[in-house]
Amino acid sequence: MSLIVFPAIDLKGGQVVRLAEGDMERATVYGDNPTAQALQFAEAGAQHLHVVDLDGAFAGEPVNARAVKAIIAAFPGYLQLGGGIRTREAVDGWFDLGVARVVIGTAALTDPEFVRDMARTYQGGIVVAVDARDGFVATHGWADVSDVPVADMARRFEDAGVASLLFTDVGRDGMLKGCNIDATVALARATDIPVIASGGVKGLDDIRMLALHADDGIEGVITGRALYDGRLDLATALAMAARG
Fold it and tell me: Known catalytic residue: 229?
């Protein structure tokens, strides 16, 4: 099984940004044309794209819908979308527009039956975001931290039919500290659901280590700042991931 590399486009006010540790006040702007960025990733060989409506994550409803729609129309591969998706109407709307997978975070903790219902309706299309601060689930755009351990949250959905778990170590996100390989692999081994790694990827070593653990249940990795800062070449990362 080869590792999927998801280049990330995070949207704030219609611009392409990266946050430091999920803090909206610590945003670095990398461009004002998300569609052009998506096409650049496609030209490098990306077949999957991870898009986050950061404003939506805090608002609890889609905010950067115009930018997302433009990316959907332009990107030739599979688009995975998260950020403030907490209602059936929002899920239905994005799938109708052509999103391949929808990421649900806060609602997975507050309304697990909603997630189960969506997973039944859109088989293979629902990803549960398991965002962690110090081992506990963070919600509402990572602004709040619950008392629910990450592994406990993941196990709630083992029989729900969700496609994957998106595990983010919030303390590393956007910080180029390196992906939390140990915690990601531990989560993958603790559940039957494939895991996508996120947070802190700084270079090819992270891709290589995660690829080595593909058989443990690591499905993919999301990378953003390392690409934008030129620390990671996407075409090289894709080639390494494909080799396994």
Answer: no
* Token representation of residue 64: 């950067």
Q: List the helix and strand counts (H, then E) for the chain.
A: 11, 12
Domain assignment of residue 57, given as a range: 4-243
Determine whether 147 is an active site residue.
no
Which residue matches tokens 């209602």? 87
Number of domains in the chain: 1
pLDDT at 214: 94
- The one catalytic residue in 55, 131, 173, 206 is 131
Give which of 136, 164, 174 is closest to 22, Cα–Cα.
174
| Threshold 0.85, pTM exceeds | yes
State the CATH number of the domain containing residue 79: 3.20.20.70
Residue at token pair 């180029």: 176
Q: What are the backbone angles phi and psi of residue 12, rounded to the nearest 5°?
A: -140, 115
Going by C-alpha positions, the residue among 143, 116, 122, 139 that lies closest to residue 80 is 122
pLDDT at 144 over 60: no
The residue annotated as part of the active site, out of 10, 55, 169, 173, is: 10
